Task: structure prediction
Amino acid sequence: MPNILFVIVSYNAKRYMQECIQSIRNKLTPGTYKIAVTDNASTDGIAEWLEAQPDILLIKNSSNVGFGPGCNQAVAATHNTEYADYDIFLLNNDTIMTSTAVPRMMETLYSAADIGAVGCMSSYAGNRQEYPVTFNTTEEYIKYGENLNISKSDATFERTRLNGFAMLIRRNVWDLVGGFDEDFAPGYYEDDALSIEILKRGYRLMLQRNSFIYHVGSASFVKTGTNRLSFEHHELFIRKYNFDILSYVYPCGAIMSQIPFARDSSFAVLHLGCGLGAELKAIRSFYPYAKLFGIETNTTLYDITSKTENIYPSIAAASEQLPTKSINLLILDSNYLADLSQDDKARIADLCAADAVELNRLHDYDDFSFDNIFMVSWAKELYSPAIARILTDRGLINIVTPAEGISAISDRSEISRQHILSIDNNNATIVPYLTAHFSRKPDKKCADKLTVLTEAFMKRYCDSLTPSAEESSSGKSRLKVVVQNDCQKHLDEIAALMDESNLLHDTEMPTDKNNLERLWGSDWNYCGYLTASDIFGDYGIVGFFCYDRRQKKMLRQAISWLVADYRLENYIHKNIENLGPFSGSAPSGKIRILIKGDKSLSPIEEYLIGGSITAEYEDAFTTTDDSPNTSLGEDLPTLLYNSKYHIIIFSLLQYDYDSWERDGDGCLGNLFETIDNLYERAPGNPTIILLMGSEVYYNIADKKSCNLAELHSEINPIISDFAADHDRMRLINITEFITGTEDFKGNVNHFSVRVFSDIAERVCLYINEKVDEILRNNR
Result:
């Protein structure tokens, strides 16, 4: 088999890049590969490190050209060299190679002449190329990946697109396509476009599910990209290709689940409205002896799909080519049914065998909010224990509709009717779509427990219909509640509880694991969870709260519906009332970061993940204060001088222009006294990152913004001179990230999403610099 050219784009993230390169060296045989790296003007020293590596072909850019163009440059650099015929392996720089990944992907790539590219699985990837596993160390991820042992019949799956984080492509196919479309730079949808171009040349895309590469993206300090760019490039894709790939990329699970044939059966399939052929490709993957045919009347989709599938542009064309009574499985897309003429219906009937199975691909449920369903209430005659078990395994409550009706259960459980799906004969067609949707989600391993707890709730519910005058429900059931604080040990359970609370109460509080870890990673936050039990059972974790001791307010609170009738909020408030004096938290094992400044800077915190972050936001920045134990210009306390941090991000954005106009020298003196005290007195020798305000305002029609921009332009050079004499100070001048009026939100100190993303990326650079320093000191 040909050798491999690893194509990697570098932009800062020095430590991740080094680990990625070393993993390739450790896992692959020397002489079987070449590494080509395009560096997009990194500033953290990785370009210099790469330049010193004799086994790396390095292309250095003077600016960040983005992922796609960087990959194209790396491949182009091998033209007319000994590496010109090496197959292309696109690889993100924050990945770690496993020993089995490349051999298995190469074996798949060359298992058939018409396979053009192969993708793999990971711990962190889109496009359904992710195994939902979480481990504490990189070594555990590597061990997991190398021990994957999916049966050969299930190991490969044909796709309509592949994720570009780790993608192996035949060299002749890459050259034929011409690489990435650079219109999609710096990122988003460039791998979708590449996938379509490969399909248009008649080559197939395969996913190797036994191949696993660890993607550190889930653990990095800074999120990449913005929603705006993703939206814009989605629209760009549609303009370029005249269809929305998101409508055709995945096979319909409801259709796949209803195919009645055995895996080794030989049968003929005709799919009317086959789109990009996602269902046909999925059927081929599961049923290798099936004969597959399709009909697609959209000329754009037909031109692409006909290169890899045996499809026809019309029913008439299929009728002319296919033998009569030859089709055993007919899949009809509901979008086409209303327009079928009597002649078309007759032609389809003539193609189908007498015992042919017909499945309708219904679009009625395309926009159905399945994820908003928390309880499924079944008509007794439709209840299926097997389907209910699948749904219960994914955290849904399944009940047979009780005599008193759903409304009574909804009122008692506090589950809104909009979150209860009632299934009867009028909507029974939704069942396979419901099952398919939740079958793709991870098994929560809670079926037995949830069944028991649901039964316990129903017993309490029935008991409450005839309450005793002497005893409350909680008194009769002998309720026991315990409040505990080791939240990190129960991250998954708390996240599930918060998701449930969001769903039931129609809130949009961020509840992903990163956000939860950020809550209890802040020194000011007091977090806890509640466990409960009674005579009916042990309910486990049924409540969570997060209380900000600095501002004395509740940030999060959630109580499970299973104990809604017990009013456990009282236990939370009693626990908060009994808190003693606050003295700060002991250092955790993570990088500890303190952010101090105006509340408008909070997006920076949202972009940073992977550390323990404490934020001290104020309504506005003021320059000094006599007491080191109170925040600057506010009565709120601060941890600047009595808790150790690795990084302190300190905002120097000015808001009080009038004070500067009255006494600029006094304000400047107070400002330097403040940052000098911070440098000298903050314990633990932290790196101090100073955020300096924008010196430009463009066309903001706001006199105050103009004045503040001029003020920043006067004091920023003085701050720069001061920082040059302090080796632990780093500067971020927001002026660097401002390109136009759209970068401001209202005034000179409030910024767009892109600017905050760029600021966070620069902060990430300094965080990684600190991490490297800590690692060196600990050797």
